[in-house]
Amino acid sequence: MANIAFIGLGNMGGPMASNLLKSGHQVAVFDLFPEAVAKLVSEGASTADKVSECVKDAEFIVSMLPAGKHVEGLYIGDDGLINYIKPGSLVIDSSTIDKGTVIKVSTELANKDINFVDAPVSGGVGGAQAGTLSFMVGGNVADFNLAKPILENMGKNIFHAGSHGAGQVAKVCNNMLLAVLMSGTAEALQLGMDNGLDAEVLSDIMLQSSGRNWTLEVYNPCPGVMENVPSSNDYNGGFMTNLMAKDLGLAMDTAVQSQSSTPMGALARNLFALHAGQGNGSKDFSSIIKMFKKT
Ligand code: NAD
């Protein structure tokens, strides 16, 4: 069993760390929110007052933070973990961040003989809880092979996307498609409801027809159609609109760099940015359906 430090115990990181504990690893946890730390400690994790203390004995350091600036600050910022992690250890960053930050952080860590893979995830909070996430890993083959058995405790599909940053490119492509599917599904459901259809009936019809997609299968945006999804919990928990807006910004940056055309992604970015700006940033991204509702 491995000695693992886990940093960032939010909607995703909390259940992921919990699954590492259930697999029998020694896990030291850290988050800025004491409540998040206390929950994992009650499940058997250790912790310390400072994040630098949590990583000093770790062979693997897993991080699950909101955005690139948090990852950069944690590892290579003032008094960053680069000064505390043992040489030869492997950092697995599962946050969704920009490729540029991955290259910067991984290069600086490599100078201190600390290995790094980017390993963003797909599957949502449900996947994190069930241990069925998909991991998209960027890094060299040796580090991928080292990371894989650890990731298998938290996910069921572990892909090697390519070199450093490739995991992030795969992730933003996937999330751009998810945003397009969610806004399209919300629009279609609202059109049906505006014309007298019941959301559950229409969802059933589209699930068995050519409009079928992941949002209809497991993440319906209409309250009451499915249990245990954010739409049936006032859009709390799940994947925050702010984070989706961030991911769509990353997709647009990636498209600019490769001079790719992403008209659907651009529209989705604007829809989610508008929705976030109207006070829905901390609500789950499926709340985009409210934008289509006539008042
Ligand atoms: P979250 O906001 O719920 O959790 C982030 C956690 O990081 C918070 O608990 C915060 O306190 C902690 N944190 C921030 N800076 C820190 C620091 N310096 N040291 C320690 N802890 C720190 O976010 P989340 O939903 O868990 O998402 C995390 C990442 O996973 C994001 O990059 C997101 O885009 C990605 N993601 C989320 C989902 C989802 O469905 N929520 C799905 C796939 C990927």
Q: What features would you describe in this structure?
A:
The mean pLDDT is 97. This protein is globular. The protein is an alpha/beta fold and 295 residues long. It has twelve helices and nine strands. Helix 11 (241-258) packs antiparallel against helix 12. The chain folds into two domains: 3-163, NAD(P)-binding Rossmann-like Domain (Rossmann fold, 3-Layer(aba) Sandwich), CATH 3.40.50.720; 169-292, N-(1-d-carboxylethyl)-l-norvaline Dehydrogenase, domain 2, CATH 1.10.1040.10. Helix 2 links the parallel strand 2 (26-30) and strand 3. A six-stranded parallel β-sheet has the order 3-2-1-4-5-6, sandwiched between helices. Strands 7-8-9 form a three-stranded mixed β-sheet. The chain has helices at 13-22, 34-42, 51-55, 68-76, 99-110, 124-130, 141-151, 166-194, 199-207, 214-218, 241-258, 263-280, and strands at 3-7, 26-30, 46-47, 60-63, 90-93, 115-118, 121-122, 133-138, 155-162. The structure holds nicotinamide-adenine-dinucleotide. Nicotinamide-adenine-dinucleotide binds at residues 7-13, 30-33, 36, 51, 64-66, 70, 74, 95-96, 121, 124-125, 238-239, 243, 247. InterPro entries: 3-OH-isobutyrate_DH-rel_CS, 6-PGluconate_DH-like_C_sf, 6PGD_dom2, 6PGDH_NADP-bd, HIBADH, HIBADH-like_NADP-bd, HIBADH-related, NAD(P)-bd_dom_sf. Belongs to the HIBADH-related family.
